[in-house]
Amino acid sequence: MTRRTILAGNWKMHKTVEESAALAASIAAALKDKPSNNSSAAHEVVVCPTYLALDRVIAELKGTSVLVGAQDMHWESQGAFTGKISGDMLRALGVTYVILGHSEQRAYFHETDETVNKKALKALAEGLKPILCVGETLEEREGGVTEKVVETQLRGAYAGISAQDALNTVVAYEPVWAIGTGRTATSQQAQEVHKFIRGLLTSFYDSETAEAVRIQYGGSMKAENAAELLAQPDVDGGLIGGAALKADTFLGIITAS
Q: What is the pLDDT of residues 156-190, one digit of tens each?
């Protein structure tokens, strides 16, 4: 099965609203006459700005095939949850994707496998597509428990999600030790874990579903290593951090794909 590559830029807590709009405009202009702006193109491009900039970025990208994602959401539709954003609020803006379970949410804001699952179920119910993040720390990799950690996180994330709904999810494998550290997993290391994840999805559902779900690499992808990583049979895209904060470096990855 040929899976459509998905390249998602996670802007994290960077860029003011005006800066975000300018970056989105630059990406839109560069892709305007490219094949990537065709819905039948081999890859899908997503940008994930801060909540504050979502509306402006969506406006800047109107008329292009570039989609917009949010960086998180709450599992309730409304309530006394100061500082949180609900799925229906995101959907009303025109958001398509939402990142859930990012390693920084797990490390700094007490995200758990249970809360990731609650958010994923709610996102799907709202018609959003979750990008479900899993991955191990350096200590866990050196301790030989990468597969155990990834399986626990993935099993938790997909609890109660039907095979049909799983088709509207994306998995992002984040080797935490390769995020913002300058270290990158080799293409072989990435492929090994991606293949393991696809095997887990097969055990959760069936081979047809597992073959259809896209698995992104989320550990310091850049133009210099994108082609080699994306050439791996189970690496279906990238969840891109620092390299997504400038139009030229993000476009370099898109070109390499």
A: 999 999 999 999 999 999 998 877 666 768 999 99
Catalytic residue among 60, 104, 126, 174: 174
Contact 20, 251 (CB under 8 A): no
Amino acid code (one letter) for 161? I
Global pTM value: 0.95
Work out how many domains the chain is built from and give that number: 1
Structural contact between residues 220 and 182, judged by C-beta atoms closer than 8 angstroms: yes
pLDDT in tens, 16-45: 999 999 999 999 999 875 544 444 467 899
Helix (H) or strand (E) holding 204: helix 187-204
Q: Is 147 a catalytic residue?
A: no
Q: Which of 44, 102, 104, 111 is catalytic?
A: 102
Domain with 27, as residue range(s), is 5-256
Active site residue 102: yes
The string of DSSP letters for 155-197 reads HHHTTT--HHHHTT-EEEE--GGGSSSS----HHHHHHHHHHH
Burial call 205-224: b when 16+ CB within 10 Å, e when fewer:
beeebbeebbbbbbbbbbbe
The domain that contains 246 carries what CATH number?
3.20.20.70
The enclosing H or E element of 133 equals: strand 129-134
